[in-house]
User: What shape does this take?
Amino acid sequence: MNDLFLAPFVIMRRLPQLWFEALHPDPLNSRETQRAVSEKLAAFGEGLVAAQTETLVAMADFAGAVMTGRVPDSPLVTQQRITEAALAPAGKRVRANMRRLAR
Assistant: This one.
């Protein structure tokens, strides 16, 4: 199953707790909420670095292909590789959250 389809299930599992915490004077007092926020920021940062790294690799591959007379990858293939690299950290976190919250 695609990782992006798991995200609504993870959100569904967290919603009752988030609603309860919204009534608390300090909503970020919960460890689960702090963990949710911090892991999303970490996944975003990791995805950003992975996308930039894959972009640099694609640029180097393109230059190498042009200089050696090979046909470079199509822009769609390159964009797909960059997108997959950017989404991989978030997918990893979503799968881990689904396993943890399913208990």
